[in-house]
Amino acid sequence: MFGYVVVNPKALEEPRRDRYRAFYCGLCRTLGERYGLPARLALTYDMTFLILLLGSLYEPEERADSCRCLPHPARRHACVTTRFTGYAAALNVLLAYYNCEDDWQDERSAPKHAAALLLRRRLPLVRRAYPRQYAAAEEHLAALARIEADNGSADEAANRFALLMGELFVPDEADHFAPALRRFGEGLGRFVYLMDACLDVREDARRGRYNPLLPLAAQPEFDARCHELLTALIGEAAAEFESLPLVQDVDILRNILYSGVWTRYALMQQQRQKERNDR
After folding, report:
1. CB of 42 closer than 8 Å to CB of 32
2. DSSP string of 161-230?
3. Structure pTM?
4. By CB atoms within 10 Å of each CB, which of 18, 74, 90, 166 scores lowest?
5. What residue ranges do the domains of the chain occupy?
6. Spatial distance between the Cα atoms of 220 and 272, rounded to a whole number of angstroms
């Protein structure tokens, strides 16, 4: 999920960008307080979406503060947390660990290996706090690794990652909104997995790595088919999102879901267009 579920700042007014940033800063601060500096360095914007989503759905109490941080030590800035910030922080640690492990296996990256070792020490805290989510990550990511090792289909791989995201989007299985949150998480997870495959297909082909879209990559209409597939998948996720009774921060959430998730795809398309123009 890292790096895809982000805001498009150009399409938000400054007060709304500031609110989004305040929740991001709250997540960063919580990571540092609960899991230490290594976890803070693994922070991404993606989990800010989950905090805002759950906040909009359940409307928990917000705690506003001001803080300083390593990137901006000279001035204080707004920092907002809710009861879901700790949940998102735990998931950030969990997913960051597996992401670093995956990069180590794929690229033999020494920095990623070192980061994975540091994050692994924080995993017992996550397991004790959220045993269901921890077990789901172990189960589904191990199954996904087997699918990828066996050169499985795009549907197999994307659906397995979707099951994990569906589980992580549900903080409380007994809650009335759990089924809808799970369906939305699954839809978004399916989109993210195949978006990542679409963006990485050239590099994976060059390095001889698994990519579920490699069998289609040589076709002249590959880019068009990818765009069509991704549009359909995010449409399915958006339909589940719109079924939820969301009011608070729904403009920020829609900005992310309808625009922000396409940021890296748009950059890739611009780069490929430039390559074609330079020929």
Report:
1. no
2. HHHHHHHHT-S-TTSTTHHHHHHHHHHHHHHHHHHHHHHHHHHHHHHT---TTHHHHTSTTHHHHHHHHH
3. 0.94
4. 74
5. 9-278
6. 14
For the chain, give the longest Cα–Cα distance: 58
Residue-wise pLDDT for 106-129, tens only, equals 777 788 888 889 999 999 999 999
Residue 66's CB: how many other CB atoms inside 10 A?
A: 11
> Could you tell me which residues come within 8 angstroms of residue 256 by beta carbon, excluding any fewer than 6 positions away?
5, 6, 7, 8, 49
Homologous superfamily (CATH) for 9-278: Farnesyl Diphosphate Synthase (1.10.600.10)
User: Residues of 144-165 as b/e, b for ≥16 C-beta within 10 angstroms?
Assistant: bbebbeeebebebbbbbbbbbb
Query: Which structure tokens are listed for 221?
Result: 């209409």
Which residue, among 154, 157, 123, has the nearest Cα to 138 in the 3D structure?
A: 123
Q: How many CA atoms lie within 13 A of 218 on its CB side?
A: 3
Amino acid identity of 209? R
What secondary structure letter does DSSP report for 155? H
